[in-house]
Sequence to fold (323 residues):
Amino acid sequence: SLVLVNGTPRILRADDYPIGVPGDVITDIPRNIETPRGGEDIPNDIAIYVPSLAHRVGFREWWGRAARRGASPTTAIAWNLMTFSADVREHLASISCPTLVISRSEAFADLVEHGRFLSNSIRGARFVTFPGADMVPWAGDFDGIVDEIEEFFTGKRRAHETERALATVLFIDIVDSTVRAAAVGDHRWRGVLDEFDLNVVRLLARFEGIHVKNTGDGTLARFAGPAQGVRCAAAMVATAKNFGVEIRAGLHTGEIELRGDDIGGLAVHIASRVSELAHPSEVLTTGTVRDLVVGSGIVFDDRGRHSLKGVPGQWQLLALETA
Fold:
């Protein structure tokens, strides 16, 4: 059997292949693999192959090391030139084995149309699309792709057990962001947010945190240890003040559900509710976090027990005094 993921019989546009990529789009790619594209600070190869991981802490360094171990710059250029000039359309009709064609709908150069061409040209091929922009199958939401391949090969797919992990969850949110944006203007406010976001990523790297996603005017992150999360939150509050911005932060430690790059579960909801109750420039945590950092030198002020919207029971909350 044959499985093709984000495949194409040729890349360049031709008179008889109008869905191909215009030559001027890819002219400079082979020799500018690491050049940022589209005005963003994302190297070409990452923006094309794994955009969902572009802002994950440490990923760019890992990707660069892997690329250099895989090929020299000269070999990489030669490989790309060969790929861009290849055309295997005439051989598709000779494929007789069962074939599954998978394409991601937002991938670079409208690859989903190339996948549709493959499935129409290979006798009996099955065509399936998945959302996302990553070209490599192991990035983004890949569980569905794996399930589809497993069912294609074996005739059935196994039920998934939710992957869970113990983590400290951090929510930060910018106070009165709408009011601030109206006061200084969208363009200037966007510049402030962009600069602050860069510092959030830097601080997460310093305290070994994992950036999960941006949440409007805030950030969701997770940590292996609660003390790291508390100290990172304190550093974020201090950094925000340097930008003339106030944030509120909430933390909770508990089991989370891992959903690709995202996380879920009650622990995430609790951390979100705690952050909503925090005052400007305050780091608020649950009693669970306080109990787990005993002996670390971190000092809290008891704020009593509170009801958290949508969460059963009463929860003891504490404000950070010294980290």
